[in-house]
Amino acid sequence: MKTNTLRFSLLLAGLALSTPAFANVNADAGYVDLGKFSAADGCEYVEINLKSGLLKFAAKIAAAHEPEVADLLRNIKMVRVNVVGMDDSNRADTTNRVVAMRADLETQGWEKIVTVREAGDKGGDDVAIYVMADGEEAISGLVVTVLEKNGKAVVVNVVGNIRADQIAQLGEKFDIKPLREIKVKVDAETGA
User: For a 10 Å CB count at each end of the chain, is N or C smaller?
Assistant: First the structure.
């Protein structure tokens, strides 16, 4: 009896590993290990992990009323968002991690497509957005890093097959302001 249960378990594990819905997203070119951030006492901390199964479910729901959003969601394998409130206890560590992540992305072949450094007496927001190209028509990954002047760090990683025209839609759907603004930048560059 135990042998049959073990065989059945191994069969299920093999099926799960060979099924695209359960594939290891960590192996995708667009995946970035964001690690764990330290939450400061009394400060905002948000961690969102949306994986393929939930995104496909959302695509089915959106299909009737928002077919463009559904199309986008079908091609996404994972969305991870971290929002970390910073105070004196975690500011240096969090800032250093974001800066190191940016340097790692650049050495690993990611292309920086947006850089924003706002000026101000006390400094301004510092934004960098990177993509991992997948040919000329799509990207396999997107990373948004933001160090806000109000004391928050935001890091987003989107993994999937995303067409260039879908990036702004992604920003709208997940309320990621720097992505919503990419469309404006792309339109200005192309004269659209």
Answer: N
- Tokens coding 89: 């206890």
CA distance 88 to 24: 37
Helix (H, G, I), strand (E, B) or coil at 145: strand
**Cα 78 from Cα 161, distance rounded (Å):** 11
- If you search the block for the tokens 């378990």, which residue do you land on? 9
Encode pLDDT of 25-80 as tens digits.
Answer: 567 889 998 888 888 888 899 998 989 888 888 888 888 888 887 888 888 899 99
pLDDT at 118 over 60: yes
- ∠ CA 79-28-173, nearest 5°, is 20
**Cβ of 54: how many Cβ atoms within 10 Å?**
13
